[in-house]
Each structure stands twice: as structure tokens, then as C-alpha cells.
Amino acid sequence: MMELEGEKPKYGEPRKYDPTFKGPIYNRGCTDIVCCILFIICILGYVAVGILAWSQGDPRKVIYPTDSRGQFCGQAGTPLETKPLLFYFNIMKCASPMVLLEFQCPTTQMCVEKCPDKFMTLLKAYTNKEDFKYYKNFCKEGLEGLTVTQILSSGLCPAMLTPSKPFTRRCFPALDQKKGGEITVGNNSKFDDGEGNIRDAKDLVAGVKNATVVIEARQVAMKIFEDYTQSWYWILIGLVIAMLISLLFIILLRFLAGIMVWVMIVMVILVIGYGIFHCSMEYVSLKSEAGSNVTLKDLGFQTDFSVYLHIRQTWLAFIIILAIVEVVIILLLIFLRNRILIAIALIKEASRAIGYVMSALFYPLFTFALLSIVIAYWAVTAVFLSTSNQPIYKVFNETACDHSRKICEPANFSTSSMKAECPDSKCLFAFYGGETVYHKYLIGLQFYNVFLFFWCANFVTALGQMTLAGAFASYYWAFVKPDDMPAFPIFSSLGRSLRYHTGSLAFGSLILSIIQIIRVLLEYIDHKLQGTQNKCTKFLLCCLKCCFWCLEKFIKFINRNAYIMVAIYGKNFCTSAKDAFFLLMRNMIRVAVLDKVTDFLLFLGKLLIVGLVGIFAFFFFSGRVKAFENTAPNLHYYWVPILTVVVGSYLIAHGFFSVYAMCVDTLFLCFLEDLERNDGSAERPYLMSDRLLKVLNKKNKPEPAE
Q1: What is the pLDDT of residues 566-583, one digit of tens each?
Q2: Distance set, CA 273 to CA 34, 266, 286, 634 (Å)
Q3: What angle do CA 460, 466, 470 make, to 5 degrees?
Q4: Which InterPro entries match (predicted)?
Q5: Which long-range contacts (CB under 8 A, 24 or more apart) does 682-686 make?
Q6: Four-point Cα dihedral 38, 39, 43, 46, nearest 10
């Protein structure tokens, strides 16, 4: 339908010619001052929360195991410094289902110098002076003059000792399994439980299994940590290679953009094709291997991920995924071949711009440093907040008791009414908590810590986007390059952004942070409701998560373009977001054709770098190439350094290509403005390069002869 006369255009008036406009405006004022003040107040509050957490928290609670008195085993400068291991009086009591609920065994736990290495019962040890001297290492103080019955009834000693081995600073029975499947402990299939009963070693299995429910994942974590200690320098070499390849790629784009883009496309297709070929060979080679036809569903979750590489179904999944990616890329290339030519011209122009603003390539390092500070502050504050609780003691008992799991005080528990009513009960350390005002609002402080982390991280990212946008906009609108550009475009743009637009940066990042924190809450609710069978609730949560994911992507898109407009015109965030959105909507077809195809090509560049480095890392760390067999480190999981190198390579490539992407987006908005402001006449010539004029079938008319 045609617009009625006098009616405003749906997406605003096109930008009119302004002879005084010569790029980013220098005479500008502060924008979104209220949000700037709010951001500063919140940052000061964040610092106060950090100081409060550091004064109350105690990271030792995470590092050291805790005995039944709430003391830290092995802590330097304490009487327990020489006793780094935690010993359970009766590991079989850890088989109780309550362990899974409260993460605490209902048995006395004490710090010891080393784990017991032989079978022994208190009854037998008591009759032998040397044995009893050894046995006392695993008992509390105050045994003098007491009989065996008195010692056991007072809970001063365990009824028995079993050969144990330290694992994550805890003593667990040294269980083993013979070829016939028989469980043994200390090479014996049976043991005396200290109460006159001969029991099977398999009775210890359930206790050990439940006792390790909290630390089962730590075994994998420790192995991963060991792998990092063995391979960290090779990982660094891989990341340096990724950085050099990324830098070389950017430099080549500066001079050979057209050729490099097509080489990149061909290389990506070849790398994926090689991946399909390699996976196919692995799939075929496993055909005759026993057990390789087990399905992933039957196999279940395994901590040793290398097991999955011996299953044919794993390689079949890899083949299918890579084949789908290959087909999608080829189809996109076929249908977008003309658009790719246009996008290549835009990338060439971006290469020219980066050539004039070379310092922009190193700006991501500054952003990375700021993000590292934000992440480190958040992580340290979170650890101190989570460890700022006080030790809570609860009543643990073997028989029925009305006071079971109630809070108690270990100092006077032996004379309390709880002990009188439940003679076999014990007051043991349960967990860390608290009843003070600080402890009651601790969850709120944790929430504040997470929210400010999102806000600060988004602010740093936004600052980088606005700084780069201002630098590249000064290049585009310079009539004579580089004479009309600032001497240091990056520093000039960074200064303007911080001096005038901290409020706008805080406003945009606040909106994004609110959406992100809502997504975190939805994930938390979904995790809490995993056991529910209400399909309506699951469907509603799924819809909400999807909607907020889409909203987050949309806000990121709006923010990015709003920051470009703020960098150019110096207006507030809302006005800039509206102007950018309307400008893009008035040129919707160009947005789809140029901007998104260019993003796709830059993504292929990142994919190529990650693929090349990833393939090299795979062959090196897996030892599949004979030349590297003696050089590669011995690892528990060779996928640990491979995955680290791949993720690190992607982040490095993303850092370099994000500069290109920001340059393309800035130039894109600038030449849309150029098309609306100017018409190619001698009075209003286009400021875009000859390449872009040719791509858009535009040209500047020569000045009329006098």
C-alpha cells in the first residue's frame, strides 16, 4: 500500500544532507547520566560486597577436608598440619541413604598422618602394647585407664582398622577385584568388623561408593589437572600457532582479500571432507573389533572419554554431523555466489580500513585483560561468599531418635538432654551455614555478585565495540585518507567513549544483563524441576528459555548497532538504537545480502583456523603419528589438551575476526548513511570507496567543466 500524503514513513525519515557533517562528532555532551551514576554506585556496592566476603570467607573450607569437629586437616600453622588425611571410624555407615542427602557420613571422622595399612581390631590390639600404640594413631585422646568397652561406648576409637589408601585426602579401604570378580581388601576377601563378626569385603563397597558421592567427580578433575601439568607448554605452543595463523590470515586479507576468501572457502570444504574421510576409516577399522558395536545408550556415561572412540556409533555420529555441515556450506555457496562477490568487496574495504587503523588488531588484548579482571574478581568473590558460613553440627545416630539431624553443640553434647535420650547418638560436623543477618542474605549477595559480573562483562564488551566503531567511522567519513583522520583513532575513540558515553554503555549492558540473569534463573528453575513429570510445566519452561534466548540475540544486535551510532553522532542510547534500527529496516534487503553473508565468510575463516590447529593437536596428542610418539606427553585423557587448544584457538581467532566484524558492521552503517545523505552529485559526492560504488552500481558525477 502506498503511504498517504503527510503520513510519516514507517521506519522514520531518511537522513538528509548535512554539509557540516564530516564523521564522528567531536563537540558532544555526556549521555545517559542517570545510568552512569547508577553504574558507579553499583560498582562501589560490588567492591563493598567483595570486601565483606573477603573478611568473612575462608577458602580453606574448599581446599582442606574437615573432621567431625570442623577442623581443617593438614592446615599449615595448626596442630593438624602434619595430619593431612581424613579417616572414617566406620566406612560402612557411609552406605546410609542420608549420605546422599546431606553429604556427610554418620560416623566420627578425624585427621590422621597416614592411612592404616593393615587389618586390626581394637579388641586384639588392646592386648598387645605395640599394636595398641599403632592403633592410638586413629583414636581420640583420653584413652588412659579405659577398658575396650568404655572406649567403644565413648566413641574414642574405631572398632576395627582396614588397609586403606589416600584418595582426595581421605582414607578409603584398599579394595581390589580378582579375576573371578571376588572383592578383596588388603588381599583378603573377609575381615573382622571388631564386634566379633566375620564379614565379606564386598560389604565395604556400598560405604565407599556413597562416601565418594561428593568427590567422585574430583577423580576426573585431578586427572585433568595432571594432564594440564604434563601438557601446558604444548597447549601454549598450539595457541601461539593459532595466533600466528590468525595474524597471517588478517595480513593476507589486507592485500589478497578476494583470493584469500575463496582459498578459505575451499580449505574449509577440504578440511571437513578430510574429517569425513578419517572418521569413515575409523568406522571401518572398528568393524572387526570386539565390543565396538555397543550403542552409546547402552554404554552410558563414562569418565574415560577415550572409551567412546572405540565405539563405531561414535564415529558414525561424527560422519553424519560433518556431512551435514559440508552439504549446508556447499548449498549456501551455490545459492549465494553472487552475494559472496559483494561481501568480498566489503571485506576488501574493511581490510583497507584496518590498514589505516592497525592498532585495532591489538585492541582485543585490552578487552581480554579487562574481562580477565572481571572474571577473576567474580570468581574470588564467589569463593569467599560460598565459604563464609559457620560450621553447623547435627545429631547423627544409628537407632531411632527424635533428635536425629537436629543442630547440636559438640562442647556440651555429652551432658545434654539429646545425649541422655539417645545414648548412641553423636554430635558431628554436618556442613557450613549460619543464622546471622549476613548468612540469611548470603544468597542475595551471591545473586548480586552474578548480576554485577554480567553487567561489568557486558560493559567491557560494549566499550570495545564503541571504541572500534568510532575509529573505523573516522576512517570512512575522512574525505582525504589518512590526512582527515585523527593521529591515533583508537585512543581518540576510547577517550570519547569513556568521557561522554559511559552512561550509554552502562544502559545497553544493563538491559542485556537483565535478560541474561533471567535466563540463568530459568535454567536454575529447570534444574530444580528436573524430577517433575508435569509436561505442561516443562513445555512452558522450554518456551520461556527459547524466547529469552531469542530476545538476548536481538538485544545484542540492537546494542551493537546502537553503539556504532553513539560513536558517530554522540546521542543517547535509546535515540541511537532507534536510529540504527530504522536505518537497517529501511535497507532490509541490503542487511540480509551484505552483512549476514560477510558474517558467514568471517565465520568460515574462524572455522578454518580452528580446524587446522585442531587436526594438528589431535594427531600430536593422540600419538597417532609415529613422528610424535616419543614427543607427545603421556596423558590420562588426550582430549583435554586437544579441547583446550580448539577452544583457545577459536577464542583467539574470534578476537582477531571480531575486529573485522566490527569494522564491517561500522562501514555497513556508514555507507547506508552515505547513500541517504548523498546522491553522487558534485555537491553531494559519495564518500565510499570506488570498490563499493562499483558493487552498488553507483558512481560520483564529475564536476562540471568551467
Answers
A1: 998 888 999 999 988 888
A2: 55, 10, 20, 30
A3: 145
A4: Choline_transptr-like (IPR007603)
A5: 684/17
A6: 70
